[in-house]
Design goal:
Blueprint lengths: L2 H4 L16 E2 L2 E9 L3 E9 L4 E9 L6 H16 L8 E6 L5 E6 L3 E3 H7 L4 H20 L2 E2 L8 E4 L4 E3 L6 E2 L7 H8 L10 H4 L6 H17 L11 H10 L5 H4 L9 H10 L2 H9 L11 H12 L11 H11 L1 H23 L4 H30 L6 H19 L6 H18 L10 H21 L4 H20 L3 H20 L7 H19 L3 H19 L5 H21 L3 H21 L4 H20 L3 H21 L4 H20 L3 H21 L4 H13 L3 H14 L4 H19 L1
Antiparallel strand pairs: 1-2, 2-3, 3-4, 4-6, 5-6, 7-9, 8-11, 9-10
Helix pairs in contact: 4-7, 4-12, 7-11, 11-12, 14-15, 15-16, 15-17, 16-17, 17-18, 17-19, 18-19, 19-20, 20-21, 21-22, 21-23, 22-23, 23-24, 23-25, 24-25, 25-26, 26-27, 27-28, 28-29, 29-30, 30-31
Length: 769
């Protein structure tokens, strides 16, 4: 957009001149749709030769002036440009008139304030909670990008006719750790622009704001959505009275406020009060606590407590005791506590090591034993408790990597003294296995360290072999050794030894059957493991082109899992296992030639996974599985000619994948999935006759795959993925250069043979032209 074109509204008349029909750059003003402390917002249309589009234009009030306000306006522009979330209004354009009048061009959200939307449609408490959780997701996304909104209120949460909430107006948002505007300036100038009724105590007092400030405002919004009333009783609306109420007055419980103005004996009012009493009262009031450190640490925690309440699970907002507050603080600060524990371990180890040398033999021996037990206990805590506490947190990959490094150091130290101590040997083996799984496990969230994972699993196997040799009748020892062999087999396969991988899993079947037969009616782990072995063998056979063998093994796995689903009280476990069988059997069925039956199986898996993710939305494992289902349903629909259906599922796959990458960009599996989704998007553009768009998607996928492959050059399947991207881009020579050595290293892989044949054929055809 040309700056000269934007200078059509004179500074002298300012925003009052933005009348219907006037223009700002290529945009024509339609009408004013809002006005606030920083300026006015207009509905406008772009109607030049490029395209037609309705937008919202925010024009800063010229009377404000001053460098601080101008910097704040530019700050808003930068913030919005960095945010890309389906529930946050997007920034399209920005500029400044020749007279220095700044403006933003944003997504126009045609909708109602969230409280108006809920009341007009008479939404139930459950529907209001579901809608509010979506808003919390948008706020959490903004916080992860170091942005605090600072003016969350119903008028800044618009809900479209389709029921999609959109968070708007980052006019007084503050970037954390960016230094765009000095903090003192922000505090001094933000006050006139926030909405007092929804401001937090620290905002009213002019103190520093944090993400807890937005949590407070969310609590006020939720209070009004549930009770229909404001949280504070005010005699007037003068600012100082509002400020005093916010800082000093304790709001009554939403369940009590909901009865204000209701007729005595009103059944609906009584039902609402009963519904809000207890958990919802506590959740809302915890979000609105006066002290920021006593609120929910994140919007995600607030949403999670609501979800747990809806599912009948215990919530964080329990009775407010000192012990509970302390424990809650630790849970909120998992990442910081993790780092603190690791630092403390290092310090304790150094202190204890120094103390050894200063004591006589008896005292030295006693202290050595104490240190050994402490390190043993703390090593287990790092590997299991601390890691499991952060594994599903967005952006946790760097912390998990640090946990692996420290964990391995302590495990190797303990292993030197483990001989003859069965309990310690078993603990160490389990810890090595856990770290190996974090380092590299195909198809799940991992760190991309294949050699390190193989070394960790081999250490676990060596310890477990010694345990089985010492007590061959111990079923737990035998099962755990099989698990180590299983992990080693998967990593051997990732390095290209498909025959070795398949043989190792086949050798497990007799032992797996024996363990499954010995299980009691209340035990399930060995039967699930047996089904998993059949499913794995079926998948390996499919890769070498044995469709009949693949079908037979996948059907056996499904029969076992269907039987377990009827008796296992853990429905989440049984349903998850069933989705794996539906997916794998679907792939084998498609390879055997029945794509329509394969589509039915993949759709069944997709439905179950959507339900599982809805019940546990933060579970990374389930979200990865849902991502696979979107892709496989899309593949089947594409093969059957339903291109619109295929495009819809591929778009869902790409959206979910990018959301996961945005939350944890260091996660290797997330990046692998992103490249696959981009390939699928490129295929759809190719089919639609848009070669330039297709190539753009393929190039993005290629860049990701080359980066991942260079960082893990032992993973031959990543090299295959690079070749596929070159093949899609019709660079057949590059594809052949990669696939020829791969076909020699993995001669049994049917997919690589097929890709190589296609690349050679196309290269030959090109050379003849």
């Amino acid at each position: 957009m040309c700056v000269a074109d934007a200078a059509r509204i004179p500074f002298e008349t300012g925003i009052e001149a933005a009348k219907p029909g006037s223009r700002i750059g290529p945009y024509r003003i339609v009408r004013e749709i809002g006005r606030g402390g920083m300026g006015a917002v207009y509905l406008a249309e772009r109607d030049d030769e490029h395209y037609h589009q309705q937008v919202a234009i925010k024009l800063i009030k010229p009377g404000l002036g001053g460098d601080v306000i101008q910097r704040r306006f530019r700050n808003e522009m930068q913030i919005l440009a960095e945010l890309n979330h389906p529930n946050i209004a997007r920034l399209f354009d920005a500029g400044t008139t020749a007279d220095g009048l700044s403006y933003l061009v944003m997504e126009y959200v045609e909708g109602s304030a969230i409280n108006v939307y809920c009341d007009d449609r008479q939404l139930s408490v459950e529907q209001r909670l579901d809608l509010f959780r979506t808003v919390c997701d948008a706020v959490q996304y903004a916080h992860q990008h170091l942005v605090i909104h600072r003016d969350i209120k119903p008028g800044n949460i618009l809900v479209t006719r389709e029921g999609v909430p959109k968070l708007v107006d980052f006019g007084i948002a503050k970037l954390l750790q960016r230094g765009t505007i000095a903090s003192s300036e922000l505090t001094a100038t933000a006050m006139p622009f926030m909405t007092p009724q929804y401001a937090s105590p620290e905002q009213v007092r002019g103190e520093s704001v944090t993400t807890a400030t937005d949590v407070y405002s969310l609590g006020v919004v939720l209070y009004e959505l549930l009770s229909g009333h404001a949280p504070y009783r005010l005699h007037s609306r003068v600012p100082h009275e509002i400020a005093q109420a916010i800082c000093d007055q304790d709001p009554e419980r939403p369940s009590v406020a909901a009865t204000r103005g209701g007729a005595t004996g009103d059944t609906r009012v009584a039902q609402t009060r009963k519904r809000l009493h207890g958990d919802l009262d506590n959740i809302v009031l915890m979000a609105m606590r006066k002290e920021p450190q006593r609120r929910y640490a994140t919007a995600e925690q607030l949403a999670e407590d609501i979800r747990r309440h809806q599912n009948g699970l215990p919530v964080r907002a329990r009775h407010d005791t000192f012990a509970y507050r302390a424990g809650k603080f630790i849970r909120r600060q998992k990442m910081a506590v993790t780092a603190a524990v690791i630092i403390a371990l290092t310090l304790v180890g150094g202190i204890v090591a120094t103390t050894w040398q200063a004591r006589v033999a008896r005292a030295e021996r006693a202290r050595a034993e104490n240190r050994f037990n402490e390190v043993r206990q703390l090593a287990n805590s790092i590997v299991f408790e601390v890691h499991d506490a952060v594994v599903n947190l967005p952006g946790s990959t760097p912390a998990r990597s640090l946990i692996v490094q420290r964990g391995l150091k302590y495990l190797d130290s303990l292993a030197k003294d483990a001989a003859g101590d069965r309990g310690l040997q078993r603990e160490l083996a389990a810890a090595y296995e856990k770290l190996g799984a974090v380092q590299y496990t195909p198809t799940v969230a991992h760190l991309g360290d294949l050699p390190g994972a193989l070394e960790s699993h081999r250490k676990a196997a060596a310890l477990r072999e010694a345990l089985v040799a010492s007590d061959p009748s111990n079923l737990d020892y035998r099962r755990e050794l099989l698990d180590s062999y299983w992990f080693i087999a998967t990593l051997v396969g990732a390095q290209g030894d498909m025959s070795g991988e398949l043989e190792m899993i086949k050798q497990q079947l007799p032992a797996r059957r024996e363990l499954a037969a010995a299980e009691t009616s209340t035990q399930f782990v060995d039967r699930y493991n047996l089904a998993g072995a059949y499913a794995y063998i079926g998948s390996a056979l499919m890769q070498i082109g044995d469709a009949a063998g693949a079908l037979e093994n996948q059907q056996t796995a499904l029969r076992i899992r269907e039987q377990l689903a009827t008796i296992d009280p853990n429905t989440a476990r049984s349903q998850r296992a069933l989705t794996i069988s539906y997916e794998f059997l679907g792939l084998a069925t498609d390879q055997a030639g029945d794509t329509r039956a394969a589509l039915d199986l993949q759709r069944h898996a997709l439905e179950l996974r959507e339900s599982l993710v809805a019940a546990d939305p933060l579970n990374t494992d389930l979200r990865l599985m849902l991502n696979e289902s979107y892709r496989y349903v899309g593949d089947m629909l594409f093969k059957l000619g339903d291109y619109d259906g295929a495009r819809t599922h591929y778009q869902k796959e790409l959206a979910l994948t990018r959301e996961m990458v945005a939350s944890d960009p260091s996660n290797v599996q997330f990046r692998v999935n992103e490249a696959v989704a981009l390939i699928k998007a490129g295929d759809m553009e190719t089919h639609a006759g848009h070669p330039a768009k297709a190539v753009s998607n393929y190039e993005q996928a290629l860049r990701i795959r080359e980066q991942l492959s260079s960082a893990a050059n032992l993973d031959l399947y990543l090299q295959r993925d690079v070749a596929e991207a070159w093949l899609k881009m019709k660079n057949y020579r590059k594809a052949v250069e990669i696939l020829e050595p791969l076909s020699l290293r993995i001669p049994a892989h049917a997919g690589i043979r097929s890709m190589l044949a296609e690349a050679r054929s196309q290269l030959e055809a090109v050379s003849k032209r």
